[in-house]
Amino acid sequence: MKPLPVLLLLSGVLLCHTGPVLDPVTCDGNDGPGAAHTAMHHIDETHNHGYKFRLNDITSTKVEQVEGGCNWELQLALLETRCSVVNPKQFENCDIRAEHERAVMANCTVMMTVKKGESKVTKYNCNTRQAKTNQEMVRICPDCPVLLPLNNTEGLKSVDQALKTFNQNTTNQHYYILQEVGRIQTSYMFQMGMGYFAEFVLLETRCPRGSRIVLEACKPLCPDRAHRAFCRSSYTTANEAISVECELYSPTNTTALGPGEQEPVCKPPHDGGRGPPPHAGGGGPPPHAHGQGPPPHDGSGGPPHDHGKGRESGKGRGPPFNPHFPRGSFHACRGFLVNPDPALHPICPWPLPEPRSQPRES
Ligand SMILES: *[C@@H]1O[C@H](CO)[C@@H](O)[C@H](O)[C@H]1NC(C)=O
Ligand SMILES: *[C@@H]1O[C@H](CO)[C@@H](O)[C@H](O)[C@H]1NC(C)=O
Ligand SMILES: *[C@@H]1O[C@H](CO)[C@@H](O)[C@H](O)[C@H]1NC(C)=O
Ligand SMILES: *[C@@H]1O[C@H](CO)[C@@H](O)[C@H](O)[C@H]1NC(C)=O
């Protein structure tokens, strides 16, 4: 009988710490891997659009001893995974994209301070790009699809078609709207014309499926109560055939509404008072919590223990809903990047610099 209470206690402890327990970073120059590991977790917590990334290589580490601690500067090489940021999986468990799927890499510089045994990422900046250019890919794999800009008209048409198809599925309780387009690929297919292959995230709305309503008028459910769907679609122009397959992710709050109880009206996500102008780049998810404030939080009831390190639930849900029907999912941080690739979701600089009066495009 004795071991049982111990086991129960243990599982209780595990449940309270869904996020990984990170070893504290020291000021020992050999602790580069530990520092990189901590940095990677911080990037994963703050990167809230597109796809999750994983550490591929530690390019260089520098540690500078200062009064009471040290400063780390890390150069990290990351690779994009197949997991959308709304996927509840830990980034470590996500698969890296293969080269023929148009792999994406990010070269990041991360600054971290260690003081009194506490480590804190103070800043990071990444350069996100396709691992191989189109010219390089043509030589390696002439038939591989190429990535299209996320605002490509034909590509977005295929996404709209896929969304309509998804919304016809009678299994769904509500209609869904587009939250974000992750990537769009295209290639010519013999006798089928052009093929468009898209990946995108859908967000559950308050509109009951079957109601006669314009989809654009449907408001999303609160971030903690909405299902998300991560979908892959393919569309071929010759026969106008669309196919779509989606994975559904459950909301964090699955408490059923009581009899007669209305879906809650959710507070808008808080922004900490700064962030880029909402229209920079056109129609990306609204910026939120990129400032120095607490990590992104949907303001509507994640589990109470989710503060800082106890991650998992506050994030992993992706950005809060987009009040506009997104046309291409360009993230607002593009205005701060030099030559962002329009086909990719970059890792945005953190914290975001003060908005410029004239955000630079392309
Ligand atoms: C990554 O960026 C750093 C700093 O910008 C640069 O020195 C380094 O050469 C880059 N590495 C790669 C592989 O692009
Ligand atoms: C896509 O976005 C780029 C950069 O903002 C813009 O120059 C281009 O006209 C847009 N294309 C379409 C089809 O909207
Ligand atoms: C409808 O949705 C369910 C659950 O997500 C899925 O299993 C099923 O394949 C979908 N049906 C069609 C026709 O797409
Ligand atoms: C879940 O949603 C219901 C309905 O809005 C709300 O009453 C309840 O407090 C929420 N639970 C949590 C843990 O946020």
Written overview of the protein:
The protein has 362 residues and is of the alpha+beta class. The protein folds into 2 domains: 200 residues, Nuclear Transport Factor 2, Chain: A, CATH 3.10.450.10; 104 residues, Roll (Nuclear Transport Factor 2, Chain: A), CATH 3.10.450.10. It is 14% helix and 30% strand. The chain is built from 4 helices and 9 strands; from the N terminus they run ααββββαβαββββ. The longest helix is centred in the N-terminal third of the chain and has 15 residues. Bound molecules: 2-acetamido-2-deoxy-beta-D-glucopyranose (NAG) (4 copies). This is Alpha-2-HS-glycoprotein-like. Pfam families: Cystatin.
Major sheet description: 5 strands, antiparallel
Secondary-structure class: alpha+beta
Low-confidence stretches: 1-18, 270-327
Shape: globular
Beta-strand percentage?
25-35%
Give the termini separation. 67 Å
Strand order of the largest sheet: 5-6-7-8-9
Gist?
This protein has 362 residues and is of the alpha+beta class.
Indicate the topology:
Elements: H1 3-16, H2 32-46, E1 51-66, E2 69-84, E3 104-115, E4 118-130, H3 134-140, E5 146-148, H4 153-167, E6 174-189, E7 193-208, E8 228-236, E9 241-249
Antiparallel strand pairs: 1-2, 2-3, 3-4, 5-6, 6-7, 7-8, 8-9
The chain binds 2-acetamido-2-deoxy-beta-D-glucopyranose (NAG) (4 copies).
Region (Disordered): 253-338, 343-362
Protein name: Alpha-2-HS-glycoprotein-like
InterPro entries: Cystatin_dom, Cystatin_Fetuin_A, Cystatin_sf, Kininogen_Fetuin_HRG
